[in-house]
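Page 37, continued from 36.
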């Protein structure tokens, strides 16, 4: 069959495409010669970013090699995986799915998909599951991400609709970040916010139990008790009611439920003092927020994972939306409640119907919708009812009710809560099919059949970003090896299962069918209508410019929604929805007294399968850590920079302790990213409880009761090696950081350290031991090149920095000075850079500190001297903070 089109000639061309990471959806202008050498820049013409990119986007070229890729289908045998042909692999998937469905019924199979699929992929797999196999057991990692916001939108607005646009975020005079660390997670949007703040006054408030980079850049930080958001927003609603903040006309003409909302609020003491106490913040700060909200017409409230990932995620979203509806701050320039999407196509997936509780194209499982979709598809059947949501789906796999699962573009073994349970579930499952771009992921290891998918830069289709703008992802290089686009793999399995309806020739045909479905029997009944984009020729599809929906046939692409108040409910009114404040699903206890929070770091993307390929992205925060407040650290005998063991009811992990006042007393926080292949003891999700919001099914990733104890390591060390699959003996805690020419393994343990022979071997070794200081060093060379290094010491402080040594692995031959220096680990007189602050320009902390000490007073000045922060700007908030810290220290010293 035809392969996806890709440029074949070796001439450099510039192709416009879209970044594969976050939901900002930045346009990328990629210079490509078709040989996988890429130069990327922000696309100045794209409305999302106007030419900017963040550190992850900037590093796309560095992740575009074929290293680590799965290039052939593989089938598991008793002794490992073997390459298979597509025919064999596809037949196997189709036959086993067919046999299981025939024997046990449609609900005995499931699909677990992802907001990193393109809309076309998503559409194809949703159609196969719901219209042909006849099961709604298809759910997506958006369940872990957007499901609470989706449910809140549907309740309040009648459909899953994000009212605002990025222009509103810029125009706002008050910006609230509610559980959103935008400075790290939506960096280009944050740069736009900062630039808007230079043009007009903008007051920023951050609501987060953690003092994040975003909080530090805001005018006011409400460092609330975890899970107290509903109380805070309900208190605001009550304050608006009692202080003349209700837009009476708007509420009368465009909403319903005011009386019920008011009555519900009255059930609790809504005095600012009581609310501030329950939220754990000062009354003055609370009133500063309430009064700003009361008096600023142009207000945007962004909400993200601190809001959604909660057992009260839907209530959190609704209480925030209530405040906007009450005060009429919606549908106008600069005012909106704004759920920001995480993944590049979280929105597209929600549109096509990738969630188990939605049928397709914003239709539910009512009889009218089912009949409509079935007729449009001309399909043999239609899933009768909603399917299992992610957490329940894996429970059903564990219990054997689901016997076959196909995982696509997500890594549930790392990202689902109670991750070790998920591993057991997959182990028991009769058939696990995994489509991924990377050969070695934690989930791939559990597959029976591995399918090689086309990756970013190869695949062809569309994504929808946070502001409802549909953009093209375009191929920049031919498909490598045997890889295929995800929708083609789905279509081929469907055909082999005996289904007609999957005969598309190219991605544009899939998109067209989807666009027609949104318009089918619609008449404005569903706001999601892409009728204006249906009927495009292939060339028109290929040249599609970023376009915002709704876009009805004969109409124009939309802007902000609800401008005239009309909502997507039967009577056109938004619903004010009373919600009651509750605590976390599992409160802390004497045994587990700390509240474990989790989240993202600036330069890694989720389970690190792609960002870790770019060495510069591994350096900002190189290893997993647990942030803990100084008073808790003292109570738990935790020392800064030593290892700590975090234990919950579900599992445990060993992480580097970071003692900091950036978390509240009583809270700890770990990053979600590390996997078995990077840090088998540093994984977050075996710790996380599987409690979910009762309506949305979204897990409470931000709150698990935990305890912390010192790990008690007696030795520290590191091994630098070319091999990315080194194994260490039992009891050795290790984590791996990829560098440009080698892997750096940090190791530590209790009792006797391992013999250096067991770590790197003895052949060709030069060793240097210092028995008095307990330091042991070994270096291996081959033909004048460095091939392995191992250092062990009783204290981490005695070890040299790794950078200089790691860089030597790139040298063709070591110079005599370097040869002499490798055993000490550094060149005398050469200072280590410290942690990398600017990933794009490779500038470390020490250089920036030196520039500040030499008189640089602003991020721009530091940029002029060091070049730090001059590319994507993601590190600028950190540089500003270093300047502030320096000034404070100077003042204190004076
Ligand atoms: N660098 C980077 N960027 C990313 C991603 C990535 O992996 N790396 N992933 C993308 C994806 S898929 C997503 S979903 C987004 C997520 O983007 P964000 O939502 O910004 O990311 P998180 O760090 O998960 O969580 C945000 C904040 O919620 C706070 N929080 C915890 N509990 C509470 C609470 O009870 N109330 C409040 N108000 N806040 C709380 C946390 O302390 C955290 O700072 O990021 C996207 N962008
Ligand atoms: N503790 C904790 N856990 C969390 C969160 C949290 O805040 N805290 N956040 C949750 C959230 S919001 C999210 S979105 C999830 C994300 O979690 P995951 O979706 O599991 O994370 P990714 O690493 O993005 O996984 C994507 C996988 O798809 C592969 N891939 C990339 N492109 C393609 C493609 O085109 N086709 C195919 N077939 N495969 C592809 C990648 O190699 C990778 O293995 O994590 C959730 N888990
Ligand atoms: S902000 Fe960064 S990660 Fe997000 S789309 Fe833009 S370049 Fe990609
Ligand atoms: Mo997400």
């Amino acid at each position: 069959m035809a392969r996806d089109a890709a440029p074949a000639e070796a001439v450099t061309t510039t192709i416009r495409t879209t970044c594969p990471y976050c939901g900002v959806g930045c346009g990328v202008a990629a210079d490509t010669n078709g040989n996988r050498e890429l130069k990327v820049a922000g696309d100045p013409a794209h409305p999302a970013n106007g030419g900017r990119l963040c550190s992850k986007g900037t590093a796309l070229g560095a992740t575009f090699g074929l290293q680590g890729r799965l290039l052939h289908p593989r089938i598991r045998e008793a002794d490992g995986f073997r390459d298979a042909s597509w025919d064999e692999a596809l037949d196997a998937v189709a036959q086993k799915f067919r046999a299981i469905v025939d024997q046990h019924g449609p609900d005995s199979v499931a699909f677990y998909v992802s907001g990193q699929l393109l809309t076309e992929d998503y559409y194809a797999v949703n159609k196969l599951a719901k219209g042909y196999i006849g099961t709604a057991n298809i759910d997506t990692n958006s369940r872990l991400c957007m499901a609470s916001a989706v449910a809140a939108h549907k309740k309040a607005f009648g459909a899953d609709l994000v009212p605002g646009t990025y222009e509103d975020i810029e125009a706002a005079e008050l910006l609230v970040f509610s559980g959103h660390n935008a400075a790290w997670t939506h960096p280009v949007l944050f740069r736009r916010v900062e630039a808007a703040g230079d043009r007009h006054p903008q007051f920023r408030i951050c609501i987060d139990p953690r003092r994040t980079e975003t909080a530090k850049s805001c005018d006011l930080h409400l460092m609330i008790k975890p899970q107290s958001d509903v109380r805070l927003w309900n208190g605001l609603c009550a304050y608006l009611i009692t202080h003349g903040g209700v837009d009476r006309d708007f509420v009368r003409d465009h909403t319903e439920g005011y009386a019920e909302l008011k009555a519900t609020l009255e059930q609790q003491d809504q005095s600012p003092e009581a609310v501030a106490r329950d939220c754990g913040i000062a009354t003055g700060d609370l009133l500063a927020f309430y009064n700003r909200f009361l008096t600023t017409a142009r207000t945007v409230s962004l909400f993200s994972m601190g809001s959604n990932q909660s057992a009260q995620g839907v209530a959190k979203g609704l209480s925030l939306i209530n405040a906007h509806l009450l005060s009429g701050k919606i549908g106008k320039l600069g005012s909106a409640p704004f759920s920001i999407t995480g993944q590049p196509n979280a929105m597209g997936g929600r549109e096509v119907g990738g969630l188990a509780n939605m049928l397709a194209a914003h239709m539910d499982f009512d009889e009218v919708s089912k009949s409509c979709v079935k007729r449009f598809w001309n399909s043999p059947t239609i899933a009768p009812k909603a399917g299992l949501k992610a957490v329940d789906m894996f429970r059903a796999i564990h219990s054997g009710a689901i016997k076959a699962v196909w995982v696509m573009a997500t890594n549930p073994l790392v990202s689902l809560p109670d991750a070790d349970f998920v591993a057991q579930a997959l182990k028991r499952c009769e058939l696990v099919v995994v489509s991924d771009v990377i050969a070695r992921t934690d989930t791939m290891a559990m597959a029976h059949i591995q399918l090689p998918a086309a990756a970013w830069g190869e695949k062809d289709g569309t994504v929808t970003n946070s502001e409802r703008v549909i953009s093209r992802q375009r191929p920049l290089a031919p498909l490598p090896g045997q890889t295929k686009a995800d929708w083609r793999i789905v279509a081929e399995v469907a055909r082999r299962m005996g289904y007609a309806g999957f005969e598309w020739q190219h991605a544009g045909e899939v998109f067209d069918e989807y666009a027609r479905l949104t318009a089918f029997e619609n008449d404005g009944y569903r706001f999601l209508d892409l009728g204006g984009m249906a009927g495009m020729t292939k060339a028109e599809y290929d040249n599609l410019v970023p376009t915002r929906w709704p876009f009805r046939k004969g109409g124009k692409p939309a802007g902000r929604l609800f401008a005239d108040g009309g909502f997507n409910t039967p009577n056109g009114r938004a619903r004010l929805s009373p919600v009651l404040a509750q605590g976390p699903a599992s409160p802390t206890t004497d045994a587990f007294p700390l509240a474990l929070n989790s989240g993202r770091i600036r330069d890694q993307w989720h389970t690190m399968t792609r960002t870790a390929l770019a060495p510069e992205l591994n350096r900002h925060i190189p290893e997993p850590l647990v942030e803990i407040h100084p008073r808790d650290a003292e109570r738990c005998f935790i020392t800064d920079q030593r290892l700590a063991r975090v234990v919950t009811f579900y599992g445990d992990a060993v992480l580097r302790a970071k003692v900091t006042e950036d978390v509240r007393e009583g809270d700890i926080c770990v990053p979600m990213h590390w996997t078995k292949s990077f840090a088998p003891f540093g994984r977050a999700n075996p710790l996380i409880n599987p409690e979910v919001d009762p309506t949305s099914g979204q897990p409470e990733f931000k709150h698990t009761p935990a305890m912390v104890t010192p790990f008690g390591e007696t030795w520290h060390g590191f091994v630098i090696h070319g091999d990315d699959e080194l194994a260490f003996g039992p009891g050795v805690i290790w984590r791996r950081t990829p560098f440009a020419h080698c892997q750096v393994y940090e190791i530590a343990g209790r009792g006797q350290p391992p013999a250096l022979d067991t770590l790197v071997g003895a052949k060709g070794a030069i060793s240097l031991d210092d028995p008095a200081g307990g330091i042991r060093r070994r270096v291996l060379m081959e033909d004048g090149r460095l091939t392995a290094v191992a250092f062990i010491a009783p204290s981490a402080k005695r070890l040299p920095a790794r950078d200089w040594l790691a860089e030597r692995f790139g040298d063709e031959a070591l110079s005599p000075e370097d040869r002499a220096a490798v055993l000490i680990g550094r060149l005398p007189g050469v200072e280590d850079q410290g942690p990398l602050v600017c990933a794009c320009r490779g500038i470390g902390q020490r250089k920036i500190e030196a520039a500040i000490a030499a008189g640089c007073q602003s991020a721009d000045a530091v940029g002029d001297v060091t070049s730090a922060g001059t590319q994507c700007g993601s590190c600028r908030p950190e540089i500003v903070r270093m300047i502030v810290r320096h000034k404070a220290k100077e003042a204190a010293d004076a």
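Residues 114, 116, 141, 144-145, 305, 309, 342-343, 408-412, 414-415, 435-438, 441, 453, 455, 459, 486, 598-599, 606-607, 609-610, 672, 684-685, 688, 701 surround MGD (ligand 2) (CB under 6 Å). Flag for discussion at group meeting. The CA atoms of residues 181 and 214 lie 5 Å apart.
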